[in-house]
Amino acid sequence: MRRFVLYGFLVLICWFAADSARGADLKVPQNAVAGQTITLGTSGQGEATLFLIGPGEVIKHSVKLGSDVQIKGEELRHAGRWVAVLRAGGKPQAQVFWVKPGQPENLSFLARPSRIAVAQRNAITGTVFVFDKFRNLVLQPMPVVFTLGMNGAGASQTVTSHEGVAWIDASSGPKEGAAQFVASTGNITVRRVVQQVAAEACMGGLRMHIAQRTADNIIVETDPVRDCSGNPVPDGTIVTFVENDKKGKSTVDARIKKGIAKATLPASDNATISVAAGVTLGNELHVGGGQ
Amino acid sequence: MKLAKVLLGVALLVGSVSLMWAFADKKVDVQLNVDNVRPHQLEDSTKVSIVRDYGLAWRELNTALANGATAPLNNHFTGFALQKLTQRVKDQQSNGLTTRIIDHGHKLDAIFYARDGSSLEFRDTANLETQILDGETVIHSESVQVQYIAVMTGGADRWYVRVLESVPNGQ
Q: Would the CB atoms of A55 and B121 count as touching at under 8 Å?
């Protein structure tokens, strides 16, 4: 009899445990969004522990089975795959749910290079990664407007992001100065500055003349040195003057100062003087036998 | 007899833990497909570096999650990914959880490679066996294929994972 009661008691415990385990069910949200409150449903009776294991956080709550559990938006910050595990008396119940990124609130804008010569075709690259408030990459296609311009003039291009990234290649403008490179989506705008500088001196536009002759020296100087768009080539750019005569060759590397390069060469009664800046060759002067 | 059973149990436990460790420490298999990358093609040396550094990043992530240690994350994660995963490891630890991952490999499809070579975005199809433990008790285990979107950026001597976001399959 005693054995019979014991067996009966054991069966009752097992039945209760099985019922509890079956009862502790978990219902997860289908359309969770990062930063928004979610509700998880539980069934059964008694106390349990709920773990939410996300890509960048773990949340633990004591719950009363049979009631709903609310997870506040500020707790649910990371988009991606979450596992909800409900641990009651029996076997833990687990469910997977997905959290989507929120609306775009941050743009990571990389503009390269930060300094570029004028009139260079497709030499500037702008790349935008679109993030939500919690720095989740927003994978939903978003229109991103890129504008590159200076003093109100410039060009705009709209690119739709793909897998969270949008990019363009742009050409530098014809005028030197600080160009504003702007990327925007919705009401989020990020600004970068691309310094446009004069390009190489223009072929055919580099000219020099004799500024002064003394018994010992010839002083030569260039006209204002400009690139092909008419921008003055920056001060500090090296201009090379070479004088050839029967005594040999004299070379002077001079820096452009206030737009002009100047060099003092040895006097000669029959010499050829040439000038160059980078890959640009200028005019030649013949001294002595007539210019 | 009882003692023998206990010893056998201990041996099995030690063996399974060692096996887990062996999996956690082994080289992660990474394959990279660059057929659909835009707007710039990856250089051969970059491909090699990405495969090496992404594999190491996952190995270090698995070590961090298994041991509740954030230090391994610093080697190949940076920016938002580092912040996020560091928080995950800390949260796990404070809630008494650990995660063991047996990594069966990653297939990467490159999406975007910046013209200046500074950043690479790709989709990763990862095959993972995961166990979540509360103390010594396994509360969840699964063998699953998960897709990730990752962004890696170049550093002085290695590539870093800057974004790592799991996405539903097919999205």
A: no
DSSP label at A159?
A: E
Q: What is the mean pLDDT of each run of 10 residues along chain A (291 residues)?
A: 66 54 76 95 91 95 93 94 91 94 96 91 94 96 94 88 95 91 96 92 90 92 92 93 93 95 93 93 83 42
Q: Is residue B9 part of a domain?
A: no
Q: What does the longest C-alpha to C-alpha distance in chain B come to?
A: 70
Residue B138 within any structural domain of the chain: yes
ipTM of the prediction? 0.85
Interchain pair B166, A139: CB under 8 A: no
Domain count, chain B: 1
* Candidates A51, A80, A164; nearest CB to B166: A80
| DSSP class of A275 | E
A:B CB pairs within 8 Å: 99
3-class state of residue A16 by DSSP: helix
CB A192 within 8 A of CB A109: yes
Query: In this structure, what are the phi and psi dihedrals at residue B81, rounded to the nearest 5 degrees?
Result: -65, -40
Contact across the interface for A83 and B132, Cβ inside 8 Å: yes
Q: Which two tokens stand for residue B70?
A: 């954030």
Q: Is residue B58 part of a domain?
A: yes
Distances (CA, A) of A149 to A178, A193, A195, A230: 9, 10, 11, 18
Q: What is the pLDDT of residues B17-70, one digit of tens each?
A: 554 554 455 789 999 999 999 999 999 999 999 999 999 999 999 999 999 999
Tokens representing A63? 């719950």
Closest residue on chain A to B85 (Cα): A56
Residue B18 lies in a domain: no
Using a CB–CB cut-off of 8 Å, the residues of A that contact B are: 51, 53-60, 78-81, 83, 85, 87, 92, 94, 98, 101, 110, 112-113, 125, 127, 129, 131, 135-137, 139, 162-165, 167, 169
Closest CB to B111: pick one of A57, A131, A163. Answer: A163
Indicate the pTM of the whole model.
Answer: 0.79
Pick from A50, A137, A161 the residue to mutate for testing the B interface (most B CBs within 10 Å).
A137
Q: Domain range for residue B147?
A: 28-167
Query: Model confidence over A77-124: pLDDT tens digits?
Result: 999 999 999 998 778 999 999 999 999 999 999 999 999 999 889 999
Mark yes or no for CB contact B123/A59 under 8 Å: no
- Identify the CATH number of the domain in which residue B95 sits: 3.10.450.240
